[in-house]
Write a structure and sequence with these properties.
- The chain has 139 residues and is α/β, with parallel strands linked by helices.
- The chain has five helices and six strands.
- The protein has one domain.
- The strands form two sheets. Strands 1, 2, 3 and 4 form a four-stranded mixed beta sheet that branches.
- Strand 1 and strand 2 form a beta hairpin.
């Protein structure tokens, strides 16, 4: 997960909406639903950590619209595991050489249900090595 978190272009962007006095989250066209779910879990943990630390809240108010709004950032990060990328985008928008250049096609990183990530107690599959986890998920 750390490799993804360190790549800023793997994160969604947001745009300030002055009428609502909040930021609207924009959806990255290349990011999978699992990656989005995982990032929402990270956001939830960051918010809880701030609340527990009783630090003043400096977080921007962000709204995730029911109907996703596309981001203006369309260049995907390179070298992330295959399941980071949206399947339709990956299969339809990229040539075979681009697929090999962009994704690590021999690795996956998300649990089949990404909402089971970061629950406090590690899921048993999260304890597996990358290679064993990928073999288990891809069969």
């Amino acid at each position: 997960y750390l490799k993804m978190l360190h790549k800023i272009d793997a994160h969604s962007d947001d745009e300030y909406n002055p009428k609502r006095d909040m930021y609207i989250v924009k959806t990255l066209p290349f990011r999978s639903a699992k990656a989005g779910q995982f990032m929402q879990r990270v956001d939830d943990h960051m918010l809880k950590s701030k609340q527990l630390a009783r630090r003043p809240d400096q977080k921007r108010t962000r709204l995730r619209p029911l109907c996703p709004q596309p981001s203006v950032f369309t260049k995907p990060p390179k070298g992330l595991p295959l399941d980071f990328y949206n399947v339709t985008w990956f299969n339809e928008a990229l040539s075979n050489s681009q697929k090999q250049d962009i994704a690590d096609i021999h690795l996956v990183m998300f649990l089949p249900d990404a909402t089971h990530s970061l629950l406090g107690k590690a899921h048993p599959d999260e304890k597996l090595s990358d290679k064993k986890f990928t073999q288990k998920v891809l069969g």
